[in-house]
Amino acid sequence: MRIAVVAGDGIGPEVTREALKVLGALTAAEIFFFPWSAEHFLKTGETIPAGAFERLARDFDAVLVGAFGDPRIPDGRHADEILLGMRRRLDLYANVRPVRALHDSAVPLRNARASDVDFVIFRENTEGAYSGRGRTAGAGTPDEEAVEEDVTTRRGVERICRAAFVFAGTFEKPRRLGRRPRVLMADKHNVQKRGGGLWNRVFFEVAAAFPECEARHMFADALAHEMVRVPGGLDVVVTNNLFGDVLSDLGAAIQGGLGMAPSGNVHPGHVSVFEPVHGSAPDLAGRGIANPFGSIRSLGMLFAHVGRADLETRIERAVAACLAAGETTRDLGGKLSTAEAGDAVVARLDG
Ligand code: NAD
Ligand code: IPM
Ligand code: MN
Q: Residue 234: which domain range?
């Protein structure tokens, strides 16, 4: 297994170190570190070198990423070119963000238990509000206008919806509950009418090919409410890039916070990129207190993607055991440092 590591900024390197500790305890792999980060950009003027995406695609089985974002680079240019660059240039159209609580103690909702928080967000990852298109006019005048273009293609919607339905057919939860898998699409076609309801039309067209699944639509605002009030009814949520970004931080909150949430930027058959949902957390950086579980669980997703679902299962079990024992960083009420939390997972891998 050849894995590229781009640890990035802030707590990115701190949590990634713990994921690599867990990796080392589980299996042999060749690890290559790439320095692309805010620090590297400030020192060299380079965000990501020419040919880097081709190299990642050619030479590696998968990529493990930390986080990007640094107060010294307020426009986030390096994050755009490195992180959004990987998503776009490697055509990683599915941002798969599981919302799975591993222990009751991690769930902040009054009326829900861990077993109620178990669904997966499929966030479209290459278009929408992340098109990079837009313009301003009349700068500094009262009539100043800013336009951010939210660009959606039929191909883009079709492939993320298909991925969501295919995944739903393999999802263990509905099988366990003895009901059909549910796929829910969230958009705002009640206001965003200029797009001709492309998401809504294409979602139901794709759904017709998956009669074994239940297809349903909700407006994104109502879904945010549902995620907090009755998360147990959800299996798979599919949505656009920007709603997916926001809803996945909400999803992180209900499974224990941003420190817990893993993700994968995936294109089946392509080299894919795995990273925690959280950012570089400048407020925590350098203090050794960030929660590494989101990064460690992202490594689990990476393993599953390269055919080692057994290792993902071991990681999920070990993290769950740590939560049960109160072996956590302070965001979850524990006393462990980032490194001690990584050690705790390693110690529980065989439990
Ligand atoms: P953030 O996710 O970095 O932090 C939000 C809050 O969650 C903070 O209070 C932080 O302390 C907490 N938090 C985050 N990760 C945690 C962890 N592992 N353990 C415990 N607590 C954790 O989001 P932000 O503050 O809005 O953004 C900071 C920077 O990160 C910005 O530059 C932003 O653009 C960037 N960012 C990058 C990514 C990414 O690389 N994928 C994701 C989100 C934000
Ligand atoms: C995420 C982040 C990124 C996004 C930022 C850092 C560009 O918030 O991975 O969720 O908006 O996608
Ligand atoms: Mn985000």
A: 108-254
